[in-house]
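Sharing a chain and its predicted structure for anyone who wants a worked example. Both blocks are below, sequence first, tokens second.
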Amino acid sequence: MNRILYLLTFLSGLLVTGGCQSNLEEVPLSFLSESNSFNNAADATTAINAVYDRAKAIYQMPMIILGDLSGEDLWVRSDGDPVANEIDQFKYTASTTYFDSFYTNSYVTIDRANRVIENVPKIQMDTKLRDQIVGEAKFLRALHFFNLVQAFGDVPLVVKTTTDVVNVKIPRDPTEKVYQQIIQDLQDAEKVLPVSYTAAGEIGRATVGAAKSILAKVYLTRKDWTNAATKAKEVIDAKTYSLVPDYKDVFTPEKENGPEHIFSIQFSCIQPKYGSSMASNFAIYFSYPINLTGGSFQVTDSYANSFVAGDYRKQVAVITQKTLADGTVVQSRTGPHLDKYWDYNACGSSSARNNFLVIRYADVLLMYAEALNELNGPSAEAYNAINLVRARARKGATTGPQDLTGLTQAQFRDAVLQERSWELAGEGHRRWDLLRTGKLLAAAQKQGYAITDKYLLFPIPTFERDANPALTQNPGF
């Protein structure tokens, strides 16, 4: 943990960002210490922007690899990223580098959030704005602790600013304690966050809908069906969000931050060398290769073949060749690729403009259906929620996924899990969905991997345990 503490102390002061096109991303390159950086509203805004900025390091690559590659929908080509291949094939160890990147950057983000939570309340400024900024920090802290606890189980619950880098040994806290903090942070956030933002420079900030949606997912993960259903219904009943008519528009950069997008990590093509664009780590790795020579990750044949005939989502998500604007048909890789993130106006051959969709309205509808079914079986409301998602997949045709009806509770449970695969593949959810429903081991074994219970958690990174002997390792690693 000492290694992280050094990074936390230095990086949380060095509030840097890559290419900036909005107020949300505008963070100066100067070093700001706590003694001179929390004096007014502008300082508070700079500090919260730094929290959002650091989240990009997690969502640009590690989060989607950890969330999708150890599921059943995506896989890594034999000539692709060798480290990602370790995760895909359940050959990873505590030294697999993506774990360290995910773990370290999560705690740097959390520490930046802690600085906001501790210092912004002391500033003499507009009370509503001050409370909102603290609420944003609590939302982001909760989101990253949620990511950590799903991945590693027990983790250090660090909710105070890190200042001492000498002889600091922080042990792991029980999962239950971490979840209680996550829930409290999200409950605090939903009380003070706005419904939406109108200024262009504010787009992408956390909203009350984002807090409620993530809280619903936290409750769902904990099998607290009543609260999960309640929070999801609050989002639905608010009518702030809706499904966009065309599934493809969910992923089109020109239509980002639309009515379906509840919370996204914002990316652009400005100064891509500084990391503000979705680098090849995302758009190319997870899509058909823009330059037609890359493309590490593909969808599995079982996923590509699982769609019902006429499901428009397959047309959007799965591709084996590409027809360019001039009619040229190109194909340089065999097998199906994920087409969701193809960007015709990408930043060259190695970057793209796609936002990372942390949570969207279709996810909330499916969570609502799942929670209702677990409470009382497939009710009319549960059917309505899942059938709204399926109806869009028909794209106005009579073929494709038909409305569900007449299912048992077990059948409906399986239907929701399958629907989440078709709807959300490549968005960083599959591993967590399989874990939540107790299906991860079976799914991996179906893909030919004879894994055991030890793979239900990722290992604590070796680098962190070397620096902090108080960190115990997960069983089997």
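Comments welcome. The domain at 2-268+359-444 is CATH 1.25.40.390 (Serine Threonine Protein Phosphatase 5, Tetratricopeptide repeat).
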